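DUF3987 domain-containing protein
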Amino acid sequence: MQKNENSLQPDNLQEIAAAQLSNPQAGEGKEDEFIMLPWQNKAHRLPKPKDLPPVFRELVGNAPEVLRTLVFVACAPALGTYAPRLRFQYVYDQTPSTCLLQVIVCGDQSSGKSFARYVQQIIMQKLIDRDSEQRRTEQKYNEMKRRKGKKDGQLPPEPKTDIVNLPPSVSITMLMKRADAPVVKYGAPRTLFMFADELSTITQSNKRAFSDLKQIMKTAYDLGSTYGQDYLSETSYSTVVDVLLNCLFCGTPAAIDRYMDKNAIEGGNITRTILCQLESHIGDEPPTLKVITPAQQQVIDHTIEQLMAATYQDETTMQPEVMLDTQWLEPAITKWCGERRVEALKSCSKALDVFYKRSSVSAFRIACLCQYLYQLEGKKDEKTIHKWVKQIYLAMADYTLYNMISKWGTVYEQINADHVVTDYRPSHLFENLPSEFTRDLLKVTLEHLEQTTPAKNVISRWVKLGWIEKVDKNQFRKLKQ
């Protein structure tokens, strides 16, 4: 099938756009060969740094222009980890969700991906320090268990900990235990956080654990989707738990391709991911963040304290869930999704039809997090908050969809084409042959009917059944009509 000149298929979007930019006069006097869609020409942009909510404002404001959107997105999963009691209702969902985000920063070696580590350390330091204290408590108990356990069997109860930060090489059993710990301690699940400087740390770990982690990532994207393991041995940890996991990974294009393999693309891991593409050009100096000033650090610390206070009442009790009012944003969401739906119909792009839906979900979650932070800060009126939150949603929806289509659109279309169900109709080979036929005619008929059985096998079978007889070396006559 020939492609229309105005085709919007993802495999040629970037190529045509680049050609237009490099030679804008080429199309003069001719009908446009390419129509830029709104989400491709970056019609929606993030608010200026000064108009962003706290923490986002301080970190994005310290970033060069080329890094600002990436820094904004990198902040989101870390900050979302501090809001495990936040709930909001997406317009197309039947149950509430929470701020669960999976972000991957993609860039070449030495391209400046280290900004993500700095962002993570600045935001997560409070929980990192808290985790360190609880890990020491666990270590002391384990040492006591080794010394006393075998002697008299008398041990105090195992301490109830609530560790949030997970190493990228965490075992599945330990991940289950960490996810179950807040349920045991507080009676409610809590969002965990995983950061990886190098995505290869995950892909090169135990193959079984890596495969299980990718499966967990799919259920960890949605509140209420449980994952579990059940062992016969009493020494193994068996549980079924709602795993809530935010993650921020960095990796080279090759490492990301290993992580997002064919199964991950087909199974939905890519649509749950916000991909941040860090462009690098030969001779360019890697972009870097400015160091946070004491005044900025004070704002960040104050916001983190507010988020912690909204999470915990005391050492044994969590705060009630907070339901965010987002009904005012629903018209913008349905309008954006409706526009993408029409574009998918016009372009017949299966990738666009699938990718825009979760792009909208991830953008909505970031927008809700920003609304929550605006309200905690208490410095902007409702009208202003709605203005900036709507702008953030539209910018993030466009950004997420654009990067998803650019990276995985072509591959997804190919995989989808391979799995299109086609009707199989048995061919009437015998009936399509004349009463007398040659071996060559049989071969041609087999090829025409797209049959792969060798001609000699067909002849041998029909002779045994008494359907045909051999007239000459390569000549046969039907005995059965």
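thats it. Residues 382-418 form the longest helix (37 residues). Residues 436-478 form one domain. bye
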